[in-house]
């Protein structure tokens, strides 16, 4: 979800983090062990803050769930030696060890969530479970070289209207790299179990139900722990929300084709398309409403901190995207390319200060918003090279 790791957060909305119940939930206790910060959330749930190298988010919260067969992890963190050391020392501080882990449930395929899953499986023999839509992305990334990926991205951004100076840097990045291990996203472990939406996972002694929440990725899942809250907070159990629902930031929503890449023929799709491809932003908004209906007592996200008031946070995010779409319609009073649209959108910093790689992510997000407006019948394509988009008279 982080910049450089598959996502870019949008501009924070005024009042984010100030709504009632949105602060860290009561009752959790932190303790430290060999550099790892471990939080005991009660009721057989702990979390370890596993660092993400060079990321403003700082860490991924890897949750440790006690079961009658042994500990199960929810996500594993970024594949980096320092991150591995923190994960393993954190498990010891939590009263267990990596060798005792029996399973890993992966909320989505991004490397700050799935990166260390292979090492955990090698150390413990644990099973790895993921939604099949994200498993397909992992499979595709494993057969795509970095050079092929950058070549594909150059074509996609050319279709989006990126300037030549931006494309030139991508072409340079597409040149074969010196020998050495590929980046984490190209060596991710293949899961060996499939997460089935709406079904309970096979975790003896626990009731953990998979909730399919596409949007951030096509196979993102939240996990609903259908047990009484240990502090008796009002609501229905606890929700491990991955990147879907965060207390202070909005997750990146781009086009699914951008995730599939050249190995899966993604380049055949237009930059935002008219009917081509899925509607990730529409998926995300519908998924948010579903999570609100669950009414969990507490949300345990993969970043930032635990919080209560899920329905209020969902409403903030729905309102945020509604305002964003309305703003886009104003911009599209004149035909714009996807790149020009991204330049004019509001981000968490001015466009000229957005780093090179993050601009690629911003363009994918702009394309997802354009596709939502096309699906709503509010925007049409203007043929040309590159394609432009314009608001429709209503």
Would you kindly provide a written description of the structure presented here, covering whatever features stand out?
With about 400 residues, this protein is of the alpha/beta class. The chain has a domain at about 30-145 and about 180-330: Metallo-beta-lactamase, Chain A. About 35% of the residues lie in helices and about 15% in strands. It has an 8-stranded mixed beta sheet with strand order 1-2-3-4-5-6-7-8. A 4-stranded mixed beta sheet has the order 9-10-11-12, covered by helices on one side. Helix 9 (about 310-330) packs across helix 11 and helix 10 crosses helix 11 (about 355-375). The longest helix is centred in the C-terminal third of the chain and has 22 residues, at about 310-330. It is globular and about 60 Å long. About 50% of the residues are buried. The model is unreliable at about 1-20 and about 265-270 (pLDDT under 50).
Instruction: Using the alpha-carbon principal axes, give the shape.
Output: globular
**Integer-rounded radius of gyration:** 21 Å
Report the CATH superfamily of the domain at 29-143 and 181-330.
Answer: Ribonuclease Z/Hydroxyacylglutathione hydrolase-like
Instruction: Give me the side-by-side strand order of the main sheet.
Output: 1-2-3-4-5-6-7-8
Determine and state the CATH class of the domain at 29-143 and 181-330. Alpha Beta
Secondary-structure element string? EEEEEHEHHEHHHEEEEHHEHHHEE
The CATH architecture of the domain at 29-143 and 181-330 comes to 4-Layer Sandwich
